[in-house]
Amino acid sequence: MRYEKAQNILPKDIVELLQQYIDGGYLYIPRKEDSKKSWGENSGIRNSLKQRNREIFNKYNQGVSVKELTEEFYLTEYSIRRIIREEKQVT
Description:
mainly alpha
């Protein structure tokens, strides 16, 4: 997200009104409810993590140890076990 100058977007009277409340400060304007995006939707990271977790689960089912998975995916043992537990619930 990038910043936009209020005076380039809003009418002068609205800028002056906002200045009464937050003169020179930063103001975040949230998205409308119907145009919100879920986490990872833009970057694709959500899908990447799903694929990674599925791969971890498949390798675990093929006999790869949790210790080996921690080294391959650079995750803690706790994280690997959590991923396996969550993937078991999905299938």
